[in-house]
């Protein structure tokens, strides 16, 4: 039985990915930061094992990975967003979003490598955003982190490919998760109308793409856009 670890697994895309891998028969673990009730709910629904861990803290990630019996797939879905003008963003907020969205992947990939190198096989899937591809006004920090995720994933694909480890990325569009909770209904409707397929995405849409890349043995270094055609 293969083992998958999903970061940010208590909500949104991460929780949908936990459910996807559980349905496929994986032994699933997931990291979450602080919402214990949500983590328990996901665990009860899927049989996955929750581990409380802030991915921005390297020591915490190393401790969490010591609880894993093995690892075949790493899905880096943990992420936070911040909305507002760059000129009004405090430096500590800039640092925090980079610590979670970028450094969190660094910590997790580094902790996963002993598992992957031992068997000369592994799959990494990161979660970026369409704003990491084209940028978004009033989301400079978020866009910058998600652009970094894409570049990091491509670099990992080149660096780790000779060791049998693949690295791919999904770049979701507007997905109906709690990250959209602060967007007013009219703006969401405008986004829906601007999406060629005529609807917003779901966490399950993205989870399916993550699962495909995790199992696609001859694909690495790719960025799969899951945005309904919003960015083409």
Strand-helix topology:
Blueprint: E1 3-7, H1 12-23, E2 27-32, H2 36-46, E3 49-52, H3 58-65, E4 73-76, H4 91-119, E5 122-127, H5 131-134, H6 140-160, E6 165-172, H7 185-193, H8 203-215, E7 223-226
Parallel strand pairs: 1-2, 1-4, 2-3, 4-5, 5-6, 6-7
How would you describe the overall organization of this protein?
The chain has one domain (3-226): NAD(P)-binding Rossmann-like Domain (Rossmann fold). The chain has eight helices and seven strands, in the order βαβαβαβαβααβααβ. The protein has helices at 12-23, 36-46, 58-65, 91-119, 131-134, 140-160, 185-193, 203-215, and strands at 3-7, 27-32, 49-52, 73-76, 122-127, 165-172, 223-226. α1 (12-23) links the parallel β1 (3-7) and β2. The model has no long low-confidence stretch (mean pLDDT 96).
Please provide a brief summary of the model.
The chain has 232 residues and is of the alpha/beta class. It has a single domain, classed as Rossmann fold. It has helices at residues 12-23, 36-46, 58-65, 91-119, 131-134, 140-160, 185-193, 203-215; strands at residues 3-7, 27-32, 49-52, 73-76, 122-127, 165-172, 223-226.
């Amino acid at each position: 039985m293969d083992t998958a670890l999903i970061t940010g697994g208590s909500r949104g895309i991460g929780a949908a990915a936990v459910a996807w891998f559980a349905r496929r028969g994986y032994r699933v673990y997931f990291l979450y930061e602080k919402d214990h009730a949500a983590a328990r709910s996901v665990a009860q629904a899927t049989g996955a094992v929750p581990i409380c861990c802030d991915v921005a803290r390297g020591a915490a990630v190393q401790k969490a990975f010591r609880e894993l019996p093995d690892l075949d797939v790493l899905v880096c879905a943990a992420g936070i967003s911040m909305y507002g003008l760059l000129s009004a963003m405090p430096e500590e907020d800039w640092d925090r979003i980079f610590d979670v969205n970028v450094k969190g992947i660094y910590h997790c990939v580094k902790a996963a490598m002993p598992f992957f190198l031992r068997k000369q096989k592994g799959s990494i899937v990161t979660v970026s955003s369409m704003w990491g591809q084209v940028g978004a006004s009033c989301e400079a920090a978020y866009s910058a982190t998600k652009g970094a995720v894409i570049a990091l994933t491509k670099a990992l694909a080149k660096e780790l490919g000779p060791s049998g480890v693949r690295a791919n990325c999904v770049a979701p569009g507007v997905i109906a998760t709690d990250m959209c909770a602060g967007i007013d209904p009219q703006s969401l409707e405008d986004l829906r109308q601007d999406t060629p397929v005529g609807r917003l995405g779901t966490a399950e849409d993205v989870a399916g793409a993550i699962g495909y890349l995790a199992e696609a043995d001859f694909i690495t270094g790719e960025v799969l856009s899951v945005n309904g055609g919003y960015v083409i």
